[in-house]
């Protein structure tokens, strides 16, 4: 499962600092920062986050430092720190706790990637060898644990509430991963189960990122809740749109070869809709026959299934679901004042709704 718009190689300049070239649109995120002052403020936070990330993972043991910096230095879109930076715009984005809060979120995210790569037996992450393939599964797991510990240590400096929120977010992440691993219970709707998994594994951390931005920027409680609700919903929308790109894209927009999930037997939303469909036309019936086996590893069957999915009612329904989440995310911004920061957040909703059309 690809995390939302965030696991390709990131744009960084010398010394690991983010390049300011082309910053008006944040790459594959489709985020537009039309206001120069907003752009400068957000980039300032992200620059400081890059510096603090490297400092925060340093250890007295050179090997631990090397392994912990492995994914930090591989780049990434820094989607979670970006939402912290944007959330802080509804208060004071220069508040001293904004950058540490963003670092906590990114460290927590990076830790999950080390663990995900072990579970998925991944060979590559962000264009570089994954930690488990470069070293071992045991090292990757332990480095992930180390990053969780570093995140908790920094959160402690932000106060009791930050520690509590980070711990609860981590709990939701773990519950989401367990639910994905175990699968739906007997009688449970597979689509509802899948959406719950995404909310836990992906939406929860993005929600807390937006919440932290508002909290540590000093936004009002109403605005903080609006940001958190937006973060979770847009995070789910991004993941679902990645599911669709894996099927619908002729390119590698999703960060992997189209049809990878289908080949690996990952039951993403379009596949779940297709399996549950009752359409009686020959194409839908044939598609259900192929998908019933799980992973589609045969090249001819894979090509046939991919073609059928691209023309299926299931893909159309999945697109409608993505658009519904994107519209819901936009609606959750209603309590926020009209401002360049709110319009930037709205641009993410437009992007996620349109990228799979």
Automatic annotation (TrEMBL):
- Name the PROSITE patterns on file: POLYPRENYL_SYNTHASE_2 (PS00444)
Q: Which InterPro entries match?
A: Isoprenoid_synthase_dom_sf, Polyprenyl_synt, Polyprenyl_synt_CS
| One BP term from GO | isoprenoid biosynthetic process
Which cofactors is this protein said to need? Mg(2+)
Q: Where is the composition biased (Gly residues)?
A: 7-16
List, in alphabetical order, the Gene Ontology terms for molecular function in this entry. metal ion binding; prenyltransferase activity
Q: Which family does it belong to?
A: Belongs to the FPP/GGPP synthase family.
Q: What is this protein called?
A: Polyprenyl synthetase family protein
Q: Which organism is it from?
A: Micromonospora globbae
């Amino acid at each position: 499962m690809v995390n939302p718009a965030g696991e390709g190689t990131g744009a960084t300049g010398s010394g690991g600092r983010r390049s300011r070239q082309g910053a008006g649109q944040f790459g594959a995120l489709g985020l537009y920062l039309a206001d120069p002052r907003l752009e400068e403020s957000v980039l300032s936070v992200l620059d400081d986050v890059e510096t603090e990330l490297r400092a925060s993972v340093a250890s007295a043991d050179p090997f631990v430092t090397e392994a912990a910096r492995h994914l930090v230095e591989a780049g990434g879109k820094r989607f979670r720190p970006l939402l912290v930076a944007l959330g802080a715009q509804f208060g004071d984005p220069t508040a001293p706790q904004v950058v540490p809060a963003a670092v906590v979120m990114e460290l927590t995210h990076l830790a999950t990637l080390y663990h995900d790569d072990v579970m998925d037996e991944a060979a590559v992450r962000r264009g570089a060898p994954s930690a488990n393939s470069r070293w071992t599964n045991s090292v990757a797991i332990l480095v992930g644990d180390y990053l969780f510990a570093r995140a908790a240590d920094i959160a402690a400096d932000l106060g009791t509430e930050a520690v509590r929120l980070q711990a609860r977010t981590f709990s939701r992440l773990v519950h989401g991963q367990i639910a994905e691993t175990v699968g739906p219970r007997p009688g449970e709707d597979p689509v509802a189960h899948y959406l719950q998994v995404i909310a836990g594994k992906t939406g929860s951390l993005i929600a807390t990122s937006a919440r932290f931005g508002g909290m540590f920027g000093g936004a009002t409680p109403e605005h903080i809740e609006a940001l958190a609700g937006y973060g979770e919903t847009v995070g789910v929308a991004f993941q679902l749109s990645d599911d669709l790109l894996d099927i619908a894209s002729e390119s590698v927009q999703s960060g992997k070869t189209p049809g990878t999930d289908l080949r690996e037997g990952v039951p993403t939303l379009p596949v779940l809709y297709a399996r549950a469909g009752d359409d009686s036309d020959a194409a839908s019936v044939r598609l259900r026959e192929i998908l019933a086996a799980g992973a589609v590893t045969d090249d001819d069957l894979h090509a046939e299934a991919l073609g059928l999915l691209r023309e299926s009612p299931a893909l159309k329904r999945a697109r409608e679901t993505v658009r519904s989440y994107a519209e819901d995310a936009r609606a959750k911004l209603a309590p926020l004042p009209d401002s360049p920061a709110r319009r930037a957040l709205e641009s993410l909703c437009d992007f996620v709704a349109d990228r799979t059309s």
